[in-house]
Amino acid sequence: MMFLSLSAKAEERLTLWYSHQDNSFIELLVSEFQKENNINISLVQFDPEKIKAEILLGAQYGGLPDLVIFPSDFIGLHSLMKLSSIPKGWLSPELSQKAMMTAYVDDKFWGVPVIQGNNLLLYYNKKLVSQPVSSWHDIIDTKQKWLDKNILPIGWNYLDMYYFIPFLSAFNGWPIIDGEISLNTPEMVKALKYYRYLSEQKIINPECNYTCSQSDFIQGKEAYAINGDWAYQDLKKAMGDALGVALLPTVDGNVMHPMSSTIVLSLPNYNRHAAHKKTLIKKFAKFIQRSSIQKLVYKETRLLPTSDKLLNRYQQQATGDEKILFKQFELSKPMPSTIKMSIAWQAMAIGFKRYEDGLSAEKTAEFMQHIAIQQWKRLSKK
Fold it and tell me: What are the residue boundaries of the structural domains of the chain, listed by start?
């Protein structure tokens, strides 16, 4: 957790929690807002794996912030997180329908989409790779060349199920189908077996987490890395012209479809605030949707705007890395924002640990579904 206070002899104070890796994006929003408003905004950055638990704890025992910025799938837990709904009038008319629907659950809006994308893609080191691979077969076929140089062919956060989803998609599977949790499927079994097969091929270190993998890639210890669009700016700063960007490799000729979502601004306990603080929060929510602010964020970070008009313009103008970023976003599939998706994440994570401990793929898929259904029944009774 990191704490930062951005202030300038301010009279009002707000606290904002977030977990996005590119903290320059958040700081940019806040500093631009403070240029027009006499306010102190305290920023608290959490590890992406911990912020959900922190918000749930804050909702249960007290201590919630005024504002949170997090992935849109969190809003499925709006009731447990004590989020206040967002009036539709707060949303910009330029907001894309796709982005808008990521914030819409249970007939209400629970967040203001700030940026979109949040999807995985393939990075490579141009000092090591002249032409990026297009399939997993290519990575496996050339693995010995890298291993002989004491370089891992590829790295990613293997135990994080967000990275598993594109493999599931390549086998035509998806965790939520027609609004229902769908984990005990032949597609899940095939994806689990293939995922383990890649680990057995020694092309990746399955024990290397997100921080470890990103660090190894930057240091030239990995030829390729799977990471999110959120990491582009950090990688570019660290590697400069050595950074390459490509589409995710195909699996037996099948395209991988990473999940995409929006990063939304949500309001815990908004209705309990005094009138003057409510006015300030609304002002901030509208400010971050301004066309000028969306342009500035894209210019500085290459994070995709939620405005249809701006998105289309930048896509038409895109060249080089930007062209790949847009193309991979087009190949992504929206992540459901329902509570069932939150349940599915937990069930997949627990089930995958069993799989790593030796449970068969078939039994793992069955176990994942069982956990998910039991959790859904428990939450449905509340």
Answer: 2-117+261-330, 120-257+338-380
2-117+261-330 domain in CATH 3.10.350.10? no
Among 261, 197, 258, which residue's Cα sits nearest to residue 226? 258
Pair 81, 268: CB distance under 8 Å? yes
Residue where the block lists tokens 């060249």: 319
CA 355 to chain centre: 24
Whole-angstrom Cα distance, residue 363 to residue 111? 37
CATH class of 120-257+338-380: alpha beta
For the stretch 80-107, pLDDT in tens is 999 999 999 999 999 999 999 999 999 9
Mean pLDDT of 59-67: 92
Best CA proximity match to 270, nearest among 143, 82, 116: 82
DSSP secondary structure of 321-366: HHHHHHHHHHT-EEPP-SHHHHHHHHHHHHHHHHHHTT--HHHHHH
DSSP-assigned states of every residue in 111-163: -EEEEEE--EEEEEETTT-SS--SBHHHHHHTHHHHHTTT-EEEE--TT-HHH
